[in-house]
Amino acid sequence: MKKVLLLLFFSIFSFCVFSQAPIQIMLVTGGHSYDTLQFMEMFDNLEGIEYQHFEQPVANRTIANGLAEYFDVLVFYDMWQDITPAEKSAYIHLTKVGKPLLFLHHSLVSYQKWNEFEKIVGGKYIEKDPGVPESEYSTYDHDVWVYINPVGNHASAKGFQSFRFFDEVYGNTKVSDSVIPILTTKHPRSTETIGWENHYNSSKIVYLQPGHDHRTYEKKEYRELIKQTIVYLAGKNLTAK
How far is CA 41 from CA 20, 186, 233, in A? Predict the structure, then answer.
């Protein structure tokens, strides 16, 4: 009987330790300046989440080498253009094996010349280019109050009512008709849908437009939004706030 009880105890203990293991994320930056200290401090303080930080172009080489598969979620806060055929294939492979991806703010501007990237994210910020009609150019406005409304009952924004950030808005961005809206705004210089879930191959993908600088990073609502999204993408149960 003692052996049975002891075995049961260790089984329960092992399950608890495993179930409480931190979510491991690959955090990708590069190609755009940002408030580095405050951004990293935000991720340092996301309970139950651990990260390894990779800057571009090292991040893409790491993905191409297959190391990204060891992370639970990949989080992109980069704005990068250079990508090799091997790196493109590695991104596609990650979606085929169902790796969850989270794209933040200016990552929507990445890979302007790679059409498949728009399909992965579910949208695109279109930069000025001689081959693009001027009417399609996206826009940005710094330092504006953005009033945000959650849509439906998505896990990323669970428990949220309307909230606001002093942030940057993007206007005239492309958003796929197939995405699931998460956040919207009525700001006159912003595209209405500013957060969404997309599916590409076997991957769940979330894009969240807010997050320009420390004034947003330091907001409790933003940190909870990031945390809940990562927990959702990792397939974990939400913990208490």
Answer: 22, 30, 21
Q: DSSP letter at 107?
A: G
Any idea what the Cα angle at residue 152 is, between residues 146 and 155, rounded to 5°? 90
| Radius of gyration of the chain, Cα coordinates, nearest whole angstrom | 19
Q: In the predicted model, what is the mean pLDDT of residues 113-132? A: 96
pLDDT at 239: 46
Return d(Cα 69, Cα 90) in angstroms, integer: 10
Please give the single-letter amino acid code of residue 214.
Answer: H
| Cβ atoms of 24 and 232 closer than 8 Å | no
Each residue's pLDDT tens digit, 219-229: 999 999 999 99
List C-alpha distances in Å: 224 to 193, 218, 229.
Answer: 19, 11, 8
Q: Which of 92-96, 186-190, 201-205, 233-237 comes out lowest in average pLDDT?
A: 233-237
The DSSP bridge pattern shows strands 203-208 and 174-175 to be: unpaired
| pLDDT above 70 (res 85) | yes
Q: Is 194 helix (H, G, I), strand (E, B) or coil?
A: strand
Q: How far apart are CA 125 and CA 1, in angstroms?
A: 65
Task: Tell me which residue of 75, 73, 236, 238 sits closest to 160, measured CA to CA.
Answer: 238
CA nearest 30: which of 95, 88, 104? 104
Q: What is the pTM of this model?
A: 0.90
The kind and range of the H/E element at 24 are: strand 23-30
Which H/E stretch holds residue 165?
A: strand 163-171
* Residue 111 CA: distances (Å) to CA of 43, 81, 145: 25, 4, 28
